[in-house]
Amino acid sequence: MSTPYAKLPAWADYGLIPLINLFVAFLVAGLVVLMIGENPLRAAVILIDGAVGRGQAIAYTLYYATSFIFTGLAVAVAFHCSLFNIGGEGQAYVGGLGVALACLAFDGIFPWWLTFPLAILGAALFGAAWALIPAYLQARRGSHIVITTIMFNFIAASLMVYLLVNVLRPVASQTPQTRAFLEGGQLPKLNWLLEALGLSVRSSPFNLSFLLALAAAFFVWLLIWRTRLGYEIRMRGHSPRAARYGGVSEVRIIILTMLISGALAGMMALNPVMGELYRLQIDFVTGAGFVGIAVALMGRSHPAGIVPAAILFGMLYQGGAELSFEMPGISRDMIVIIQGLVILFAGALEHMFRPNLQALFARFERGDVPPAVKEGERA
């Protein structure tokens, strides 16, 4: 006889299962640390303290989390339409070009608060434009979105190298990067926000784009769950055949979804380009586009889950740097392994514990059924 299952309540589906997966991932990571001869408990204490133990550490954690919120939202929007946008890395890269062009053109004319909206528009437009061709190929030609978007990551990297070496690099410079932005192209820091809470922050790249990332998360929630377009996106994601039967244009919805996804990925560039580096340089994305996939998986493609998942990966980045410094036996490669384990259990093995939990909830539900109902069902 098959085991009965029950539908999990939202708190278990979106909260308990990710926590169990995260616990198991760190448990396995602890075994790996133990195998190389280090104390896993000490490593955990150093990692957590390095991520949230001081005001400066928290600021860096939130800085990394800002980029992951944008790329996680980009992946999540595509997920809801049953599209796997693996090109966030390239879309963010090209989005940085939009930010840089806005800053280079207006940083000496406008104050930052006027340049900032133009940079947002440039990042969103360039990121969306880079997602348009894969979207068109998927919608019109049936090309798989995974293949085209990952290929466009490499094209974006090559394009940016060419532009930074041959077009945007100042004449007297030997480094492939643009000139430094003036004050009109620099976002203000948010360190004062942590200092207002009594935390000490000497210096960090934590900047205004964090608030923009939170606003983007709210926008995605409104879009997906409170608009007609969001309903059509989710309808196409659940059943393309039902969407076609309901009159939803598959070509239109695929292209619109990918444009929104690409725009969100492109806006990630605001954080490092305008908020920390104050210039456009090679490889400023540093893998944030791929981390966004893990963030979206762990956050169950919901903004309420993506924000804490992004902060968790920000903690891994910041705490991992402290860990590799305090414990030389644990290199940066080991931190990547820990991140990979979190991705493994939050993504590929996300359903490992779900059947057991569903069976457990089914047993509780059967115990709540009154005896009279049970006798009536037997009759």
What's this entry about, in short?
The chain is mostly helical and 379 residues long. It is 73% helix and 0% strand.
Structure description:
The protein is mainly alpha-helical and 379 residues long. The chain has one domain (55-349): ABC transporter involved in vitamin B12 uptake, BtuC. 73% of the residues lie in helices and 0% in strands. It has helices spanning 10-35, 40-52, 55-80, 88-106, 112-141, 145-166, 191-195, 209-226, 228-238, 240-245, 250-267, 270-277, 288-298, 303-326, 332-348, 354-368, 371-378. The longest helix has 30 residues, at 112-141. It is globular and about 75 Å long. It starts with 9 loop residues before the first helix and ends with a helix.
